């Protein structure tokens, strides 16, 4: 039997994400993304489909590499606007009981004390259903927005992020002993201060002297997600992540990444099976293959090429407007670029047209267009041969993509015994990893426990 | 006719606020404060009572002046623990249509770009019902938690806050022209980049170069609240605040503050009537005065003196444990201390016992214990003679205090024509000030409009 798969929905608090420009499709409802009811409805839908979590990406700053301007991003609504994912979560938590929420937070720019408290508050308010997608934020415009002189170098961002994690673990795991919280009305003792201690950290990137004022939440450290594609990013993920978001349109490109990262985790003393891999997937499903293909063609017609090139230029740090469409692009193979495009082509060279065509609707995701049976065949093949644990299903149209997936693909997955028919008990960590609610004993967070 | 009054509920995301120790009362439900349903129920209750807003205070850091330790704060649950008020708002917004939310945010420690975006997201998700209580954060432990060497001087904190406001206005009002947002499916144009501009600010306290990625929300600048008692704090409030939270147990202490601040606002070119003053009020009401008094005595028995002295020591910057109970305390009359205690006593000297007794259950609020008629008489007297526009009603017990107030006091206020019977239309600013939804033409935010 193929092993059980896990599903997250992949989205962002903006009008179109990955499927750039699709907000303009007549059936799309994403223009309502500034409404809290939009998100509440979305959460109810995902819980009906037994999704583990809504994975909310984020961008800090606005892409402005393409034509050296933010114009394309705003005109096409591609990554701009972008709202704060953290504050929409509790409304979704109120109308669901099991759905988790993996929100993106920047280890480069958040203030450690405030961020730790916000995540603890969210973990309380969701009853342990919060996850954190750790990013280091790659936009130069984001760095300037934060008052920095320049975007820090790629690997240096990860060094600072490692230190940020140390501080988080200190606050979440180290500050309160397990039995510090009393809440005892009879004695009027709320907490035993002898069991609460101060964190005193003075490092190259962060300084903090604080006792956590946020009483421990169900998971303490939220379930940790990461999506590092570069060697340094993979090392970071292998160290800290419990859920890993992995990209690539072809099984042959993804499988070696999974193998590599499980190996890295093992080398760091972690159980490599405790890391759960989610491959980004764009699924276009209908009752017949012809209908599904027609859907795809329809979606394509609403794609914004300008939005795609704006996002891609920012991600690569190359202004693609400078190149004729069919001329091979020469660029330095930096770590950051590595994870972005080479993976699409496995070639040393590519043209703007090739890049654009390869990203239409699905970005760097696995794309499957077909019947429920065909979709499940392909997902099963990935689980078996790429060794992934599940998929991050990307939104194309709100809420059509998820409605179709839940209406057609989920029943087929269940019929084949590849998907649960009810939620497991417990926190997000317990549901996704099968262990928990606290980080595993071989996870670095656990070494900070008192 | 006495003029119409406006009401906010005054609370904090912690077990007991002002009425320290009352979480231990058998009927109190505040131990549920870590649950999202607690807040959703609370919001529904306040909307039933036609409250303008839930005003959420906040503490960054933990009081540690008393006995030079945070022990008292945690033991008594006084200002510690303390969770993030921002992230609980959308859940309350989902179950209400009119209630506003004035959340506390630190102009000393928040990162401008991230904070502006969070508030814009909240203003969207509440459909224009968000307010911001601007604070500069007075706890030294908060400063150390943020990686600072020391707490900045009182007036210097306000100088930095003035600059923080400039940055906020620049992002909220100056970045997007009114017609920049298109959201036009036919042309696939989301926003017109020619009508969006970059903020480039380089000041002594803040540096930022950014275009706002958060599309304009109904109010743009959230309705601004402040509670500055010191001369510098009053100047700040007179400059920026639209709603002012004012403290003092006696009318004669509050009235001159209101007069002074309206005068300061006028001197700054603002319509002094556009500033709305809310006096902190602790109301203990029952059908007879004897029953109300019995309630008060019952509440007193659950007060934590340790919690009060912990909070007060931190606010004054004086370790009150060093003084015998009945010995007059000598201290330097700093700006910060000024707003805290002299106002209670109007005396040059006071003892720890006097301070503690004057703060039991009600802190520095107006305290009224009596029948609905007696309560309304006193509120009316304050509106007439202290020139306040309304009250911030403090929670003693969750949710008993608000249930009693709404069940007994609100109908009596309505009977006398002093309180609305339904909500006004529009955003929080429109409801509270009668103008809006944007800041008034004489408000400094408005000068940043394009």
UniProtKB/TrEMBL annotation, chains A, B:
Biased composition (Basic and acidic residues): 439-450
GO molecular function term, any single one: monooxygenase activity
Luciferase-like domain sequence ranges: 23-384
InterPro entries the record matches: Diverse_substr_monoxygenases, Luciferase-like_dom, Luciferase-like_sf, NTA_MOA
Region Disordered: start-end pairs: 431-450
Domain of life: Bacteria
UniProt keyword list: Flavoprotein, FMN, Monooxygenase, Oxidoreductase
Family: Belongs to the NtaA/SnaA/DszA monooxygenase family.
PANTHER family (UniProt xref): ALKANESULFONATE MONOOXYGENASE-RELATED, C2H2 FINGER DOMAIN TRANSCRIPTION FACTOR (EUROFUNG)-RELATED
Name of the protein in question: FMN-dependent oxidoreductase (Nitrilotriacetate monooxygenase family)
């Amino acid at each position: 039997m193929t092993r059980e798969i896990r599903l997250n929905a992949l989205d962002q608090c903006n009008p179109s994400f990955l499927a750039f420009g699709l907000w303009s499709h007549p059936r799309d409802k994403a223009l309502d993304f500034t409404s809290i009811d939009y998100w509440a409805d979305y959460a109810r839908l995902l819980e009906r489909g037994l999704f583990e979590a809504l994975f909310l990406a984020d961008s800090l700053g606005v892409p402005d590499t393409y034509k050296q301007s933010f114009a394309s991003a705003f005109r096409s609504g591609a990554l701009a606007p972008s709202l704060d994912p953290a504050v929409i979560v509790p409304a979704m938590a109120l109308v669901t009981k099991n759905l988790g929420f993996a929100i993106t937070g920047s280890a480069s720019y958040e203030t450690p004390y405030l961020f730790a408290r916000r995540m603890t508050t969210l973990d309380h308010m969701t009853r342990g259903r919060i996850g954190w997608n750790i990013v280091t934020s790659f936009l130069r415009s984001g760095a300037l927005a934060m008052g920095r002189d320049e975007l820090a170098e790629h690997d240096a961002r990860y060094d600072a992020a490692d230190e940020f994690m140390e501080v988080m673990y200190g606050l979440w795991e180290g500050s309160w002993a397990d039995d510090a919280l009393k809440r005892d009305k009879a004695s009027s003792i709320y907490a035993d201060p002898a069991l609460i201690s101060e964190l005193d950290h003075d490092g190259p990137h962060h300084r903090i002297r604080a006792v956590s004022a946020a009483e421990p939440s169900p998971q303490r450290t939220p379930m940790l997600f990461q999506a590092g594609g570069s060697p340094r990013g993979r090392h970071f993920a292998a160290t800290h992540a419990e859920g890993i978001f992995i990209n690539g349109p072809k099984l042959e490109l993804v499988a070696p990444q999974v193998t590599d990262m499980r190996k890295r985790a093992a080398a760091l003393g972690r159980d490599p099976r405790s890391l759960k891999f989610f491959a980004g997937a764009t699924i276009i499903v209908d009752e017949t293959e012809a209908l599904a293909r027609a859907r795809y063609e329809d979606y394509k017609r609403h794609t914004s090429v300008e939005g795609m090139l704006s996002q891609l230029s920012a991600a690569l740090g190359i202004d693609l407007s400078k190149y004729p469409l069919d001329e091979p692009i020469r660029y330095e193979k930096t770590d950051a670029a590595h994870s972005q495009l080479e993976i699409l082509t496995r070639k040393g060279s590519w043209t703007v047209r090739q890049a654009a065509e390869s990203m239409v609707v699905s970005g760097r995701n696995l794309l499957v267009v077909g019947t429920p049976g065909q979709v499940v065949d392909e997902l099963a093949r990935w689980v078996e041969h790429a060794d992934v644990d599940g998929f991050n299903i990307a939104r194309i149209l709100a809420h059509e993509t998820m409605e179709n997936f839940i209406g057609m693909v989920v029943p087929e997955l269940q019929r084949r015994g590849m998907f649960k028919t009810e939620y497991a008990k417990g926190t997000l960590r317990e549901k996704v990893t099968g262990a928990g609610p606290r980080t595993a004993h071989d996870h670095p967070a656990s070494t900070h426990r008192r």
